[in-house]
Amino acid sequence: xxxxxxxxxxxxxxALRSMHRTSFENVxxxxxxxxxxxxxxxxxxxxPSKEALxxxxxxxxxxxxxxxxxxxxVADGRAPLQRLRDYFDHVIGLLESQDFxxxxxxxxxxxxxxxxxxxxxxxxxxxxxxxxxxxxxVLFEAASQNALPHDLDPSDAAAFILNAWxxxxxxxxxxxxxxxxxxxxxSIFEQYLRCSES
Amino acid sequence: xxxxxxxxxxxxxxALRSMHRTSFENVxxxxxxxxxxxxxxxxxxxxPSKEALxxxxxxxxxxxxxxxxxxxxVADGRAPLQRLRDYFDHVIGLLESQDFxxxxxxxxxxxxxxxxxxxxxxxxxxxxxxxxxxxxxVLFEAASQNALPHDLDPSDAAAFILNAWxxxxxxxxxxxxxxxxxxxxxSIFEQYLRCSES
Lengths: 198, 198
What we know:
2 copies of one chain form a homodimer. By secondary structure, chain A is an all-alpha fold. Chain A is built from 9 helices and no strands. The longest helix of chain A has 27 residues, at 118-144. The termini of chain A are far apart. The relative contact order of chain A is 0.11. The mean pLDDT of chain A is 95. The interface between A and B is large, with 49 and 49 residues.
């Protein structure tokens, strides 16, 4: 039972690493089983389809991000917007350690697969909503401390910040350069959230 | 000569339509030549590789967008920020007419191919830079009329707005819903550019 579960997890992790580096379509079942050192024929014992594996890859990536946010955004005495800033700075540090060559698997999968797989699209939508919920909580906390512009809706802001972050990561890949991430930080914190004025 | 040029254009247009609907990798050379009603064997007479075709698909998509912006953002008596708002509203209308199922080919290609094809990445980078330049011109015009917040840098704003737009389109695909586009409009014009205060 333990071994069985290990095999499944290994397939998801191997697929995640490969798909994050390239794309869903670029990575074949044979490539995944070979890298995971699992007989190719056994793949369909674990997953009904490559699409089903893709859905679990999305869940696994989302779960890692959620744990990181739970850890970095927890109320610990720092002001809510300071925690938000520290969280994005931390992720920029992670991206830097990967030479700005990776990015967000959720974003890449959205543009590649959301229009073609309802199963994968639903998982992407759920992952974004959960992420957005975490940001929303921090922004409502900031609003309750009068640390947000009075006319800013925290729910709107959570969606906007998440989507703008995805856009910054997209542009980072096209350049390739961390510049879009720095523009994001200045634009969100100094202009949009008007931190210096709060 | 005319026929020859027509064939090449036909291949680019056919590839653009198919790749815009799915992805670069999803569309094979055989599929493109079949749809364009051109013998498969002649493809490599026109393009040294599928990657070279991909680069021209990017250029063709970028050129269409550039012409649209030249037309919609031209100084015609409307205030610069009004032109900017009208431009995004117009594109949202176009996306609506396609049931919010398409999006931006430049964004999709960036996440799918920028890390794997230097040729395509360069074209994507150039296309974004040209687009950003058009937005920058409008924002500098607004700044010269004191229509921007005094501490907003028009160059930063052009990059941020373009990238945030790409992020909104990405999220639109994941939902699928126009909601991220409406959040973008409110967040950019009312909060970030503070249009109501200008």
